[in-house]
Design a protein that fits this description.
heterodimer; A: mainly beta; five-stranded antiparallel sheet; B: 114 residues; mainly beta; 11 strands; 0% helix
Chain lengths: 114, 114
Amino acid sequence: SQQGEEDPQALSIQEGENATMNCSYKTSINNLQWYRQNSGRGLVHLILIRSNEREKHSGRLRVTLDTSKKSSSLLITASRAADTASYFCAPSLLSTGANSKLTFGKGITLSVRP
Amino acid sequence: EPEVTQTPSHQVTQMGQEVILRCVPISNHLYFYWYRQILGQKVEFLVSFYNNEISEKSEIFDDQFSVERPDGSNFTLKIRSTKLEDSAMYFCASSRRGSVDTQYFGPGTRLTVL
């Protein structure tokens, strides 16, 4: 499968704690994107990391990419109840050309307890 | 901040009827996509579109589906004869430069086929 595979499937933490979510993929990528989806709602783009980048920050988000291991992680620091959602990684594969589709895994269900 | 918009937010139709889902991508974007998400399942790629033609389509995107960019702003998905299994959330997405850029998703149209 070409999709990103997220791990763990579900994560429950206390407000204020950090949440770490992992993603693995199988083929070479242009970039890897992380999205959030609140129940029954649309996909909100969180961050894009390119294949030549190793780490990227955006507010409370930190993303790492290890192309040798074909893996990425998303860290949410100082979590809030509003971070409760499903999180998806979506690799943009090098092989599918300029129009590269995103392939989504099953996602990680994050629950942040107040 | 520019965003992708979709109408309607919810569409109910009878099996066998035609439906048209509408999207207005971000104005300076050149690459357009449709994805769908059946309730409780993964987000699945349907089709990508660039330069007024389909770039790639999935096996889901059979002869019952078609896409069109009828003017400079709208991007539509037509399902000619809906089936019960077409019930899903349909997401439109757009990107400025294709695979090297973020794909921004609209809020989705929930299609219910009775």
